[in-house]
Amino acid sequence: MSGKRLFAVRGATTTERNTEQEILSQTKTLLQELIDKNDLSREQDIVSVMFTATKDLTACFPAKAARKLGWTNTPLMCAQEIDVDDSLPKCIRVLIQYYAPEDHSPQAVYLKDARKLRPDLINE
């Protein structure tokens, strides 16, 4: 891939409730924000996406939101986040690996209560 290099970017969000609609809505918002901030052209540049969800989110897989965005050929994986004492509840995290121009600077996205996870990366 001439002129491009492999990058990875993180993001996270939280939900109010453990419902399929809420999980899909918040994950879709997170993914759209990551696409916009990193100028991703979806499946052409994305190599793979890893999602984790805290143990209190069981209504659906967050990856389903990516499929609803049209990512039908992108490898997606979901896992349960490690259950650490006093960790942020109802949290969905994502790691996207993608190709971009060599001078690209990945822009992480942390929404809702997940902003507490990495306040150093919040760009307002």
UniProtKB/TrEMBL annotation:
<dbReference type="Pfam" id="PF07736">
    <property type="entry name" value="CM_1"/>
</dbReference>
<dbReference type="GO" id="GO:0046417">
    <property type="term" value="P:chorismate metabolic process"/>
</dbReference>
<feature type="binding site">
    <location>
        <position position="110"/>
    </location>
    <ligand>
        <name>prephenate</name>
    </ligand>
</feature>
<feature type="binding site">
    <location>
        <position position="10"/>
    </location>
    <ligand>
        <name>prephenate</name>
    </ligand>
</feature>
<keyword id="KW-0413">Isomerase</keyword>
<keyword id="KW-0057">Aromatic amino acid biosynthesis</keyword>
<feature type="binding site">
    <location>
        <position position="93"/>
    </location>
    <ligand>
        <name>prephenate</name>
    </ligand>
</feature>
<protein>
    <recommendedName>
        <fullName>chorismate mutase</fullName>
        <ecNumber>5.4.99.5</ecNumber>
    </recommendedName>
</protein>
<dbReference type="InterPro" id="IPR008243">
    <property type="entry name" value="Chorismate_mutase_AroH"/>
</dbReference>
<dbReference type="InterPro" id="IPR035959">
    <property type="entry name" value="RutC-like_sf"/>
</dbReference>
<dbReference type="GO" id="GO:0009073">
    <property type="term" value="P:aromatic amino acid family biosynthetic process"/>
</dbReference>
<dbReference type="GO" id="GO:0004106">
    <property type="term" value="F:chorismate mutase activity"/>
</dbReference>
<dbReference type="GO" id="GO:0008652">
    <property type="term" value="P:amino acid biosynthetic process"/>
</dbReference>
<keyword id="KW-0028">Amino-acid biosynthesis</keyword>
